[in-house]
Amino acid sequence: MSLNIASINIERSRHLSRVEAFITRQRPDLLCLQELCERDIPFFEALMGGPMVFAPMARYPEEGPANIVGVGMIARDDALLDVAAEYYSGSPERIQEMAFITAEGKRMADPLSIAEVMLSATVRGFRVAVTHLNVTPLGTSTPYQRESAGKLIQLAQAQAQRAGDLLLSGDFNAPRGRATFDMLAEHFIDGVPAHYTSSIDGSLHRSGDIPFMVDGLFHTPGYQLENVSLSTGVSDHCALSCRLSKA
């Protein structure tokens, strides 16, 4: 038994035609999305042929009235079982409008205005989760990001203990080789091969080429990943793909 998975930060609605082409081409069994606009859920349900589960994180002010953004999961031809949305900062009852600050001369989202959540579900006996950790100036490991990562790790460990194993996917905003990434890699196996040095698609990202491996596939020892690959031309972040099976 195995599960083909794709995890993508889709940058809201900016690249839907590219994302659609990728999904049509790759036909993943399970799709994990970050920066998903709630209004686009019907688009992905029509594309995948199943119901989406969604956890809101913020209201994006530049997206108009229908501006709720979060993380989502959807399976093709399989039910998502035992769905859990566990917030490690903020709450679904108090979703805020995203604020922006200037740090290191760059405009960035204020992490305190964004809720953080781990959305998990079971598909074909596999426990999979998706999350989006807070952004930091120039990929630095800040105390707040490390605090959030610590809470995320505790939630992920608890899910893994209950289910037996776990694959944690998402945009961690924590470049490989820095302190926040090291926290995650201390507790879970980094499933992205070392020869990949960036998950930023410089042709689509507003900052161009950045050597930051920030999107990840972390898993427990009872799972193994095969055919792990990064695809460009999908969004401002590369799409991560893998085949998940039991070790």
Automatic annotation (TrEMBL):
The keyword Cell membrane does not apply. Pfam families: Exo_endo_phos. GO terms for molecular function: endonuclease activity; exonuclease activity. It comes from the Bacteria. Keywords: Endonuclease, Exonuclease, Hydrolase, Nuclease. It comes from Phytopseudomonas punonensis. Residues 1-193 form the Endonuclease/exonuclease/phosphatase domain. InterPro entries: Endo/exonu/phosph_ase_sf, Endo/exonuclease/phosphatase. This is Endonuclease/Exonuclease/phosphatase family protein. Gene3D superfamilies: Endonuclease/exonuclease/phosphatase (3.60.10.10).
